[in-house]
Amino acid sequence: MRFKEKTVKSEVIYKGRIITVKKDDIVLPNGNSAIREVVHHSGGSAILCEMDGKILMVKQFRYPYAEELWEIPAGKLNEGESPELTAIRELEEEGGIKAKRVEKLFEIYPTPAYNDEIIRIYQAFDLEKTQKHLDEDEFLTSEWIEKEKLKDMIYSGEIKDAKTVIALLAVLDK
Amino acid sequence: MRFKEKTVKSEVIYKGRIITVKKDDIVLPNGNSAIREVVHHSGGSAILCEMDGKILMVKQFRYPYAEELWEIPAGKLNEGESPELTAIRELEEEGGIKAKRVEKLFEIYPTPAYNDEIIRIYQAFDLEKTQKHLDEDEFLTSEWIEKEKLKDMIYSGEIKDAKTVIALLAVLDK
Q1: pLDDT class of B78 with cuts at 50, 70, 90
Q2: pTM of the model
């Protein structure tokens, strides 16, 4: 790599429930010193699930924006859990669908300037209807939405979540 | 909104150069208490620029992943700067192209569970070649890449940056 930045010192600023924040002193390729702020997150999985021309979407309140957002089912990796299993688990918990097979569509870096989260996006296959089971403190609704309508929702700005826009753009017709 | 979360207390944990981290006590729709960690970022703009069937891409080292990543030109909003102006400025600084007109394609939330950044993605029109002018401490290379090649780079996982994948999926043929 031509432009590697070298870590001189790394300081943990905050160790929280979902994120850890670090402030690092680094050396740039020209020898100058700089600071890098890094939000560490253990990673997440999202899953696109299509049935009869409709896609399973969930709507939930997202505190940082104080808005309810449309997203595909997704969640944080539990400790020791493979990303595939996270995707399959979240689909069943949030959507009441069991996928016997998943295929990875993308591995995405949401904000690479200051965040190290990796979001894996899967597609679900060999589906079976089961039961949703949300945590007591989890509030979301799910809905099967027509692909044509989803295209309108993306281009009108109604769907804003990055992983969801990527998954949908990949499977919707132009 | 059915599932609104109410802020009880908001504490600034870290006020940095690029991000501010807050830890809020909230009340859930069922009356239970919870914590929300929020990374605040002032927002950014990205810009897709096409000329003669090629798209302008930049490659730079991204410290959180310790990798060089392919992205479309982008940057943080300067204080008081409109998102359109940020996009136009970054295209000229990083790519040496002046756009006389831009159109907004998307407004994206990269990781809505714990981050409030808004990334606006523009498309550049009425282009004129000028000069790149990077900051002394900014290291990146730019390259015009064929659209067909970019499709391969997305689906092979070589391009991982979320805003870039969204912008490219929107304009590349299926």
Answers
A1: very high
A2: 0.97
Q: What angle, 0 to 180 degrees and rounded to 10, lies between the N-to-C axes of helices A162-171 and A147-155? A: 130
Cα of A56 vs its chain's centroid, Å: 15
Composition of chain B by helix, strand, coil, percent to 5:
20, 50, 35
DSSP category for residue A2:
T
ipTM score above 0.90: yes
Q: Is A135 on the interface with B (CB under 8 A)?
A: no
- Kindly report the backbone phi and psi dihedral angles of residue A103, in degrees, each rounded to the nearest multiple of 5, phi listed first: -125, 140
- Cβ atoms of B39 and A65 within 8 Å: the answer is no
Report the percent of chain B where pLDDT is more than 70. Answer: 100
Return the residue of B nearest to A17 by Cα.
B37
Task: Give the Å distances, CA to CA, from A65 to A12, A49, B109.
Answer: 26, 26, 9
pLDDT at B173: 86
Residue whose token pair is 């096409």: B50
Cα dihedral across residues B69, B77, A11, A81: positive or negative: negative
For residue B159, what is the nearest residue in chain A, using CA coordinates? A108
